[in-house]
Design a protein that fits this description.
elongated; single chain; 137 residues; 2 strands; mainly alpha
Length: 137
């Protein structure tokens, strides 16, 4: 029964964690905008979300991780593979080989922040609805 209640929130919670990770990567790019030779990084959010939620099927199925030996300790439910970071394509060449485009990074930062806030509001609304249903209000 508890699995059915939390199953609807699992997707949004994974999205929230990935949005926070992407925000960290974008902030790192902005912080290194003047570092010679720094290569900007980014992540494919859709692919990362698909990978993070791949094992979450219907009927409350749990994610499983393959082990190479029967004695290995299985990871906890919330453990996920690290997100693969990609290199951002430079819009124009730079003399110091830095590939950070501040206009692109600022736009990505704001876009990701708005989507993070929207996901957070969706989760808050879902929890509020569940609490109303549980308390009968």
């Amino acid at each position: 029964m508890l699995d059915r209640l939390t199953q609807s929130l699992n997707f949004q919670s994974e999205a929230l964690v990935l949005r926070a990770e992407r925000q960290r990567v974008i902030a790192s790019n902005i912080a290194n905008a003047d570092t010679p030779g720094y290569v900007a990084r980014d992540m494919d959010f859709a692919a990362a979300l698909k990978q993070a939620t791949a094992g979450q099927g219907g009927q409350g199925s749990a994610r499983t991780v393959a082990t190479t030996h029967a004695g290995h300790i299985a990871p906890s439910q919330g453990t996920r593979a690290p997100t693969t970071l990609l290199y951002a394509r430079p819009a124009q060449t730079n003399l110091d080989s830095n590939t950070v485009d501040m206009d692109r990074e600022r736009a990505n930062f704001v876009d990701n922040a708005v989507r993070y806030e929207a996901t957070l509001r969706f989760i808050n609304g879902s929890v509020r609805t569940l609490l109303s249903a549980i308390t009968g209000q």
